[in-house]
Amino acid sequence: MKNFNDELKDLVLNGISIEMCDQNNKYLYYKYEKITINAFCCDSPAKSFLLKTEEHTGFYSYSKCTVQGKFLQRHVCFPNLNCSKRTHTDFFNTINEKHHISVNELINIPGIHIIQNLPLDDMHLVCLGVVRQILLLWKGSGNIGRVNVNSQKLPINIIKIISWRFFLLKKDTPSEYSQKLRPLDDLSRWKATEFRQFLLYTGIIVFHLVIPKTFYNNFLYLHVAMIILLSPNHL
Description:
Radius of gyration: 23 Å
Helix content: 25-40%
Strand order of the largest sheet: 1-2
Number of strands: 4
């Protein structure tokens, strides 16, 4: 990390000079470019490593506010929504000592805002997290597939209808998608790109008039929220 921090600090302070050449590879001039950091895209373990903070399973690991986690149903959860936000100044001064595990050199790089420049990771939190869990609940898998444990499990005939709709959509799926949606029987092998495609595009179609209205509205809230948050026009 020291080499990375030193090089990044040098780039931010001094920029980079690019040798410009013509079509014959003849030198013309040097072009100076200023380097700024827009964001670090990391999953939760990588973010804790980068920031030298408690790992994502810790009670004080959440990076956006000072909420203290609780251990519920074998998982660390953050149920309290009324907590103060973390700030760059508080992070710099290590106000919440339980959040930090060692000194973070990243804060010494000019122009970096620890809170704003490290966004939440939608691939793991939403696609492989929330969306996957919703589908597992509705399909039923392992212990959560038992009726007395999971009251949201959909009937097998509904699961078959949804999988059949996936099949019908295959031929109309644009080539820009890296993978076609597979049946729910293959849910354990779905990739993040499949969950993302399902959440943003095909889910509202295959679920329409098939699942209970309360289930559909719940999914629709997530769909609309992520459309807004992932939009380049969202501030």
